[in-house]
Each structure stands twice: as C-alpha cells, then as structure tokens.
C-alpha cells in the first residue's frame, strides 16, 4: 500500500519537514502547520485537533519533523481505526450495488473485486447496470471473461432496474454467491439520474427484501473536497454502507479519506493504489496513516 501512496506521503511529509526544521513550535508554526493540513484535505476539525495535541507539552520547544509525523500518524490512525473494516459476505446471493460518478474507477473496481472473490473460490455474477454507456457494458463483459464470472447485460439504454431484478432472480436460481451490480456514473447534482438509482434500490428489494446487502461508493481521491458531498448525497439516495477510494497512487490528496472518516464514520473496505488487479488493497488504518505522513512502515 505504501508504495502506491508515495505521492501523497511525499507531499505532506515534505511539508511537515520544511515547517518544523530548525524552528520552535510556537503559535506561528502551529498556525502554518494547521493551514497545511487543511490544504492536504485532512479537514478543519482534524487540523485543529492536531495543533492542539502538538502544543501540549511541546509549545515553544524545538521539535523534530519525525516527532511531528509520528504524532500526526497516531491521530490519523485514531480516526481511521473505527472505519477500517473488511467487507463481510453474509448472504447468498450477496448483492453488492456499486455507485459513483463517471471517472471514479467504478467499473474497474467491480472487475478487481470480481477477481478477488474468484481467487477466493467464490462464484460471481457481474451485472452491467450502467446501461447509459455502451463502453461500460463492454468493459464489464471483458472483466467477466478475464475473471471467469457470469455476466448479465442488455443493450445500451435498457432499464437498469429490471435488469438488476432479473439478475438477482437468476443468481438465486443458479446458487451464485456474489452479485456485483454496476450503475450509471451519476453526478450527485443530476436529480433525474439520482432518482433512477433510488428506483434501482427499490426494485432490487422486490426480488430480495434484504438486498442490496452492501452499497459501495467508489470515490476518486483526486477530486479532493468534492468527495465529501458525494458521500453525503449518495448516502441519502442509495444508503451507502461502505467506501472504496481509488487513484490514491496518482494524487497528493489522500488526506481527504481522513476528513471523510472523521465526518461520516462509514466503513472503508478497499483502496486503489494502481492499475493492476492486485492494486485494490484491503484498507489498513496504521499502514495508511504512516504512508500519508511519509513514515517508514
């Protein structure tokens, strides 16, 4: 994980080192550090707490950058520990609805999840519920071939809710263990598209009252603060149960995950740190916290 987070850690770690080297931890240094933590998307509340924690017993004393990083990593880990939870497969079929805006890496994440579940020996069905984009349907079919997972798809423009209904009925009949349903990449400010996502959830419950058993929101780390509003709105519409954050290898903004955990407390199941199938990693609080601030594991 830490290798994939190199850009995030280099950014924040370098900033901390530059700020505290050869300086006392006075009011000005603390204010600058707080400002840099906010710039790194860690959130106002968290940045304020860090400044408070650092000032206790250390104010007006010289402090090394490694000590600051260690305190920072410890506080980040405290926020992330309660949300670092594996995805528990409890039902059969276990229905996972995957939501997110276009470009977040949603369909690729579904493929990587399918590969992970297939490697565990589980039977998987992929459902091409992003019926707005022919490319997304084709992409999911390719992932189905690659992972030897069943695929349910219809032509572009078909009704996604009825497709999901039929897929779950078939999965149940065939004894499939996991159903991964793709959805159209909705912008959270497009009301009519969000209405359709709500309809999809409603229709799924007609065939399987306890489904979807998990609603995963795929977030692109590079969007920074915009991810907060995505979590809020998708949560209201689809009842998000857990998060997957992608593109942490290509951004200096991994801190946004801390702000999201601090505000919403939603489980974070996986993070994406590269293009390869194996680059969807289970989320680990300590490893992430240390990587973000540039500490060796």
Question: What would your notes on this structure say?
Answer:
Strands 3-2-4-1-5-6-7-8 form an eight-stranded mixed beta sheet, sandwiched between helices. The longest helix is centred in the C-terminal third of the chain and has 17 residues, at 191-207. The chain contains eleven helices and eight strands. Helix 6 (134-147) links the parallel strand 2 and strand 3 (150-152). With 297 residues, the protein is an alpha/beta fold. Helix 1 packs across helix 11 and helix 2 runs antiparallel to helix 3.
SSE map:
Elements: H1 6-20, H2 27-39, H3 44-55, H4 65-80, E1 94-99, H5 106-119, E2 124-127, H6 134-147, E3 150-152, H7 160-174, E4 178-182, H8 191-207, E5 214-220, H9 226-238, E6 242-246, H10 256-264, E7 268-272, E8 280-282, H11 285-293
Parallel strand pairs: 1-4, 1-5, 2-3, 2-4, 5-6, 6-7
Antiparallel strand pairs: 7-8
